């Protein structure tokens, strides 16, 4: 395609082709908008792989207030209650809106919603589509809507490399495609680039999701928050494939249990058992494996013979591995699944840089706190997209004339970062492991190579983890196992992180041992 984008200048630019980006673009219609996607739409979006669904109080026995209570409990003291209330209140209407866009949600025989149960939810409130293919079905409908929307100009195969910023205000985007560099003038940019799972060796996320939006925002001077909180899904399929296939929590909601290789159901005596909050279940699985056992999800009785019908995606990849979930336990282990931290935004998705918004997993709205409640993420992306679009539409849009040129910045490569970050920021952490991660990432993040952006994001996460001397939600430190009486969100800028990392690197380490078994 041509690198001449002059006809597309001075309109909102949305970076990211997942559910958050697509929905924001649709909500901005009929205002002309430019949507940049590094890969063909959906190809590298975590949204496509979401099995669980959307959490919304749709049942007769449910209410947004109950949904809010479960969200706050899972968030371990770090949720913004006002933001969380606003989002869960809007969730049912968001599901109805998706249905009008053509998403074929699962229904009961009487036409009502088929609602599933997942961990830490007090009610059946998970709305599914095609069983365990919810993300795929939502993305199908959103991609079709975007492609037929005349106000959306779509550039696939275009990677944003830097944001142009003057006086703390966005002036444009420096990007590149296969034919060369692009400079796009715009005073309104929305980051919807997804999460950070691609920074880790064991993850359920696409390898291409390694915090690109966080790097763009950090280099632009934006403030980031709660980067230390990473959610490990306790039941990723324990096999050689990377990314790791996910065995959705809904299977446990249907009655499947966790057992080890001796047949022991090791979660039976825990509050909530297999449906305890994800951080608790992930640590239990981690400890059992550290003791030399393999761990399995036993679905032979529940859902039993109905497994393939209820979960066709999981059944298919189990079959490829020679496993029939109706007769064989499924081998599982924890893997990075979701990032609670992100770009610090207000209720309308605005960052601390003028003209820069964030939506979806790349943002930190305050909904998830220290530990995301299951299936709140897709819901957050869909709900917040409308508020981001409204804010973008109401912002100033005077003509811009940037004079920026794109240097020969390489496309990012996270492969060298994954082993370093995985060792120090796993399910269990301690000072030694975090320090080692900072020392390993600092010189890479300080450079200009292909790994510098992934290393920068990993470094900021490690500095945030180093500073939080407690255990809370998705951040568990074996050297600080207790939860402090009160909690505050963490906050970092790029300059903060480099200053803290430099001090650690220049100070001889006295730590010994490691939390990683």
Please describe the topology of this protein.
Layout lengths: L12 E3 L3 H10 L4 E5 L8 H4 L4 E2 L8 H11 L6 H20 L14 E2 L9 E2 L6 H14 L4 E5 L2 E8 L2 E9 L2 E6 L3 E3 L20 H8 L4 E2 L4 E8 L12 H4 L3 E4 L17 H13 L4 E4 L8 H4 L1 H9 L9 E10 L2 E3 L11 E3 L4 E2 L11 H19 L23 H7 L6 H15 L6 H16 L23 E2 L1 H12 L12
Parallel strand pairs: 1-2, 1-10, 2-6, 10-17, 16-18
Antiparallel strand pairs: 3-5, 4-5, 7-8, 8-9, 11-16, 11-19, 12-15, 13-14, 14-15
Helix pairs in contact: 1-5, 1-11, 3-4, 4-11, 6-14, 12-13, 13-14, 13-15, 14-15
Short overview:
The protein is α/β, with parallel strands linked by helices. The protein is built from 15 helices and 19 strands. It has 3 domains: 245 residues, FAD/NAD(P)-binding domain; 99 residues, Flavocytochrome C3, Chain A, domain 1, CATH 3.90.700.10; 108 residues, Fumarate reductase/succinate dehydrogenase flavoprotein-like, C-terminal domain (Methane Monooxygenase Hydroxylase, Chain G, domain 1).
What does this structure look like?
The chain is of the alpha/beta class. It has three domains: about 5-195 and about 340-395, FAD/NAD(P)-binding domain, CATH 3.50.50.60; about 235-335, Succinate dehydrogenase/fumarate reductase flavoprotein, catalytic domain (Flavocytochrome C3, Chain A, domain 1, Alpha-Beta Complex); about 410-515, Up-down Bundle (Methane Monooxygenase Hydroxylase, Chain G, domain 1), CATH 1.20.58.100. Helices cover about 30% and strands about 15% of the residues. It is built from 15 helices and 19 strands. It has helices spanning about 20-30, 45-50, 65-75, 80-100, 135-145, 210-220, 250-255, 280-290, 305-310, 310-320, 375-395, 420-425, 430-445, 450-465, 495-505, and strands at about 15, 35, 55, 115, 125, 150-155, 160-165, 170-175, 180-185, 190, 225, 230-235, 255-260, 295-300, 330-340, 340-345, 355-360, 365, 490. The strands form five sheets. A five-stranded parallel β-sheet has the order 6-2-1-10-17, with helices on one face. The chain has a four-stranded mixed β-sheet with strand order 18-16-11-19. A four-stranded antiparallel β-sheet has the order 12-15-14-13, covered by helices on one side. Helix 13 (about 430-445) crosses helix 15 (about 495-505) and helix 14 crosses helix 15. The longest helix has 20 residues, at about 80-100. The protein is globular, with a radius of gyration of 22 Å. The chain starts with 12 loop residues before the first strand and ends in a 12-residue tail after the last helix. One of its GO terms (cellular component) is cytoplasm. It comes from Bradyrhizobium lablabi. Its EC number is 1.4.3.16. It is found in: Cytoplasm.
């Amino acid at each position: 395609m041509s690198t001449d984008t002059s006809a597309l200048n001075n309109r909102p630019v949305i970076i990211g082709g997942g559910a958050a980006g697509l929905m924001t673009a649709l909500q901005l219609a009929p205002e002309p908008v430019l949507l940049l996607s590094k890969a063909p739409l959906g190809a590298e979006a975590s949204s496509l792989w979401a099995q669980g669904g959307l959490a919304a109080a749709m049942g007769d026995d449910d209410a947004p207030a109950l949904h809010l209570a479960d969200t706050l409990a899972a968030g371990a003291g770090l949720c913004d209650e006002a933001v969380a209330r606003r989002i869960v209140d809007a969730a049912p209407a968001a599901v109805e809106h998706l249905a009008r866009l053509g998403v074929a949600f699962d229904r009961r025989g009487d036409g009502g919603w088929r609602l599933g149960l997942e961990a830490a939810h007090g009610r059946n409130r998970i709305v599914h589509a095609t069983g365990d293919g919810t993300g795929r079905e939502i993305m199908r409908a959103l991609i079709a809507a975007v492609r037929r929307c005349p106000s959306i100009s779509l550039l696939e195969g275009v990677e944003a490399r830097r944001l142009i910023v003057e006086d703390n205000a966005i002036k444009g985007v420096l990007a590149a495609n296969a034919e060369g560099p692009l400079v796009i003038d715009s005073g309104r940019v929305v980051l919807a680039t997804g999460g950070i799972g691609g920074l880790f060796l064991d993850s359920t996320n696409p390898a291409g999701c390694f915090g690109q939006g966080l790097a763009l925002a950090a280099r632009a001077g934006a403030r980031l928050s709660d980067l230390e909180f990473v959610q490990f899904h306790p039941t990723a399929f324990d096999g050689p494939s990377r990314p790791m296939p996910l065995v959705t929590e809904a299977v446990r909601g249907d009655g499947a249990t966790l057992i080890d290789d001796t047949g022991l159901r090791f979660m039976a005596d825990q509050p909530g058992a297999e449906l305890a909050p994800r951080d608790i279940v992930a640590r239990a699985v981690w400890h059992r494996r550290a003791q030399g056992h393999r761990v399995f999800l036993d679905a032979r009785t529940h859902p039993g013979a109905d497994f393939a019908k209820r979960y066709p995606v999981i059944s298919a990849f189990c079959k490829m591995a020679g496993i029939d979930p109706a007769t064989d336990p499924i081998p599982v282990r924890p893997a990075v699944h979701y990032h609670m931290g992100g770009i610090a935004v207000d209720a309308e998705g605005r960052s601390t840089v003028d003209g820069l918004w964030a939506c979806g997993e790349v943002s930190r709205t305050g909904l998830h706190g220290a530990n995301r409640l299951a299936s709140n993420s897709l819901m957050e992306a869909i709900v917040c997209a409308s508020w981001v679009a409204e804010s973008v539409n109401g912002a100033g849009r005077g003509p811009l004339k940037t004079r920026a040129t794109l240097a020969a910045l390489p496309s990012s490569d996270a492969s060298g970062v994954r082993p370093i970050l995985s060792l120090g920021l796993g399910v269990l952490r301690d000072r030694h492991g975090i320090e080692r991660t900072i020392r390993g990432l600092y010189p890479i993040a300080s450079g200009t190579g292909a790994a510098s952006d992934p290393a920068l994001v990993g470094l900021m996460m490690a500095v945030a983890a180093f500073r939080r001397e407690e255990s809370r939600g998705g951040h568990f430190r074996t050297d600080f196992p207790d939860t402090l009486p009160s909690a505050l969100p963490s906050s970092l800028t790029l300059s903060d992180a480099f200053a803290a990392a430099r001090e650690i690197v220049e100070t001889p380490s006295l730590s010994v041992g490691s939390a990683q078994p």
